[in-house]
Design a protein that fits this description.
Layout: E1 20-21, E2 37-43, E3 51-55, H1 59-70, H2 84-94, E4 98-103, H3 111-129, E5 144-145, E6 157-158, E7 197-198, E8 211-216, E9 226-230, H4 233-244, E10 249-253, H5 261-279
Antiparallel strand pairs: 1-4, 2-3, 2-4, 5-6, 7-10, 8-9, 8-10
Helix pairs in contact: 1-2, 3-5
Length: about 290
């Protein structure tokens, strides 16, 4: 399977379309399928991918909503498409040559499977690029203020010199991608995982301030039941005990630099994507 060719027509074993202009004025977007699917965005003058997304509705409609925002006169709100403000900023700074490619595999009809494939694609892109696609995880490129959702009425745009935007903080790099196959192992994905505890005994270990965790059922893994991130372990694990039962096992990994929500989510995405690659399915209760 082609895991490294971010631009290739067979990346991750999917049948990707040719690269189409994201600018609606060029007339390419009408050729996109209306089936559920996945899509990737690149800028011809920049390396890597700018965004990876999925939709359970019309891929043509979702990409069209993105394109309308990206090529608007002013930075759009974060709805109807949360990536539009960042890609608007990319277009504003680097020029209009954004392109999109899509895939509509039969598996995309299933929400959990589609989102698991998206997680794998983002994880692989992070592994190859050394960082996240800029428009994933609610981020914005440096030098721009992020728009709010429409209900709050804040329109973003270029920042005055010297000002910064919290959502432009650098991406957290990918995890080491070692020991990838044993999803319950103590060194899975190159992280140092705690020994497993039952959820009913969640107060026994010294829990970190923030980190990532995994949950599974004794004797029934792989697959895992769930992968998550949090900055409040005690409350989160208490709620998980209500969902998964007192005998389900959990294990925690502390990773440097996870104070920001988007950085915890990036590592969480690496783990979900790697789980899909190792087991060909998402954790049982993910998504």
């Amino acid at each position: 399977m082609n895991e490294t060719g971010l631009y290739d027509a067979d990346w991750f074993g999917l049948e990707w379309s040719s690269w189409l202009s994201l600018d609606r004025e060029d007339g390419d977007l009408g050729t996109i399928s209306s089936a559920p699917g996945l899509y990737r965005v690149r800028h011809r003058d920049r390396g890597g991918l700018e965004y990876i997304g999925e939709t359970g509705r019309s891929t043509r409609g979702r990409v069209g909503a993105l394109a309308r925002g990206v090529y608007a006169e002013e930075m759009p709100y974060r709805d109807p498409h949360t990536a539009a403000p960042c890609l608007w900023a990319v277009r504003d700074r680097y020029g209009p040559t954004l392109e999109v490619s899509y895939a509509v595999p039969p598996a995309a009809e299933d929400k959990q499977e589609r989102k698991a494939i998206e997680a794998a694609l983002i994880a692989l892109a992070r592994r190859e690029m050394g960082e996240s696609p800029p428009a994933n995880f609610g981020r914005i490129i440096d030098g721009y203020k992020q728009s709010s959702y429409s209900k709050d009425g804040i329109v973003g745009g270029p920042l005055p010199e010297g000002e910064t935007e919290p959502n432009s903080a650098p991406s957290r790099g990918p995890v080491p991608w070692t020991n990838t196959e044993r999803v319950t192992g103590p060194a899975w994905m190159g992280l140092e995982w705690s020994e497993p505890y039952r959820l009913e005994n969640r107060l026994e270990p010294a829990l970190p301030d923030n980190g990532v965790y995994r949950i599974w059922y004794p004797g029934d893994a792989p697959p895992l039941a769930y992968i998550g991130e949090t900055s409040a372990f005690t409350g989160r694990l208490r709620r998980h005990e209500e969902t998964f039962g007192s005998e389900a096992l959990f294990s925690v990994a502390t990773v440097d630099g996870l104070e920001a929500k988007h950085k915890r989510t990036e590592v969480e995405m690496d783990l979900i994507g790697a789980h899909y690659l190792a087991t060909n399915q998402s954790p049982l209760s993910q998504f």
